[in-house]
Design brief:
- By secondary structure, the chain is an alpha/beta fold.
- It has helices spanning 2-21, 90-106, 143-159, 179-195, 223-232, 254-259, 273-284, 310-316, 349-362; strands spanning 30-33, 36-39, 42-43, 49-50, 53-54, 61-63, 111-115, 162-169, 201-207, 241-243, 263-266, 294-298, 322-323.
- The strands form 4 sheets. The protein has a 6-stranded parallel beta sheet with strand order 10-9-8-7-6-13. A 3-stranded antiparallel beta sheet has the order 1-2-3, with no helix packed on it.
- This is Glycoside hydrolase family 5 domain-containing protein.
Length: 364
């Protein structure tokens, strides 16, 4: 069995190297002009105004970080079993993600966040005994994860969607043995994404850099070094756009602002919509800021039936907003996009509330 697995890994590695030599022609290119996102040379939602708020150039998104999830820890793997089969199935998870993508796009969802180390499959958790990482401990990548990632990125490219690809998640970053492995992982991931020809990618070095990272280079004082590394890599005149995010309510530090192509904020813990506007204004006031997009790519506040909520507040301040949905106490399989196993369809009142509001705001 071990020999079979080694042969499989070798064959997959050969496949990826061969594919990288001649990447397919890509259909979707994301770019930035001032504070606006462009897709294929046009601002998103061109000319759209909703309730007096400019929508053109925004990038509404959802936190769907478990699209490539797997668990290498046999002691925790059974926790994620599907209710019908009583087993966890990483390939099924990705296939059902792929099947739901066109419906998300039809409702106006232009972007989603994936993370190569996922997010807490319990929504929030102090400990993370599961082992979900696309990277091996030395920073090399695991082809089983990358095969699933490629399927999602390819489909996003076909649909005209943008993927915010996060590399690291706190609680899993310690799966890499040292700082050299972290740097190697960033090199490997960036090189692969460039070689595959993806142009519909935004990079998030790590989710909430100011929260519990073991490696110093992933912490606020030094994370810009990894951003600089990504920005330094080019292929045929192309490079990847990059940033990192902070915990709920935090304002980006100057070192990140100066090296970011766009800024990522989180609204967790911010229950007053007026505070969302305040956070955006404070971010624009950080030393080194130049006009660039501001994006909330995680916020677990809803109230979509109310005239003012965090989604509307961010939009009013000309910042993109991202839906973070997890399974809460007493809820079932239909609820939550981060809690495993995931029902990737628009299958709960909370999901429907978000997508209906999104469709209203975007005019789709």
């Amino acid at each position: 069995m071990a020999l079979f697995r080694q042969i499989t890994i070798l064959l997959l590695s050969i496949f990826w190297l061969t594919a990288a030599a001649k990447p397919p022609k890509r259909k979707t290119k994301v770019s930035i002009v001032g504070e606006q996102f462009y897709i294929n040379g046009q601002p998103t939602f061109k000319g759209r105004v909703w309730n007096g708020y400019k929508i053109e150039g925004l990038l509404p998104n959802a936190r769907l970080v478990q699209g490539t999830f797997d668990d290498r820890n046999p002691e925790t793997r059974a926790q994620w079993a599907y209710p019908d089969t009583k087993q966890w199935d990483a390939d099924r998870n990705t296939q059902e993600f792929l099947a739901a993508m066109p419906l998300w796009k039809q409702h106006g969802l232009l972007a989603f966040t994936l993370n190569l180390q996922g997010g807490s499959p319990q929504g929030y958790s102090k400990e993370q005994p599961w082992h979900n990482s696309a990277f091996n401990d030395d920073g090399s990548w695991n082809p089983y994860y990358w095969n699933r990632l490629k399927k999602i990125l390819d489909r996003a490219d076909e649909l005209g969607m943008v993927a915010i690809v996060g590399f690291f998640y706190f609680g899993q970053d310690e799966r890499l043995k040292d700082e050299a492995a972290v740097v190697r992982a960033v090199n490997n991931a960036t090189d692969w994404l460039l070689e595959e020809g993806y142009q519909n990618i935004l990079i998030e070095i790590n989710n909430e850099c100011n929260v519990r990272y073991d490696h110093a280079i992933l912490q606020p004082e030094r994370v810009h070094e990894l951003m600089q590394l990504v920005r330094s890599k080019t292929l045929k005149g192309r490079r990847l756009l990059v940033s990192t995010s902070y915990g709920g309510g935090a304002i980006p530090k100057e070192n990140v602002v100066r090296d970011a192509d766009f800024l990522l904020l989180h609204g967790n813990g911010v229950s007053d919509p007026a505070k969302i506007v305040e956070i955006v204004n404070k971010t624009r006031a950080v030393a080194g800021y130049i006009p660039m997009p501001i994006v909330f790519n995680e916020d677990d506040h809803f109230d979509f039936d109310k005239p003012m909520n965090n989604f509307v507040a961010a939009t009013s301040a000309y910042a993109s907003w991202g839906f973070f949905d997890y399974r809460m106490k007493g809820e079932g399989f239909e609820d939550g996009y981060q809690s495993l196993p995931v029902n990737w369809q628009i299958s709960s009142p909370r999901k429907r509330g978000f997508f209906e509001k999104l469709k209203e705001i975007t005019g789709l």
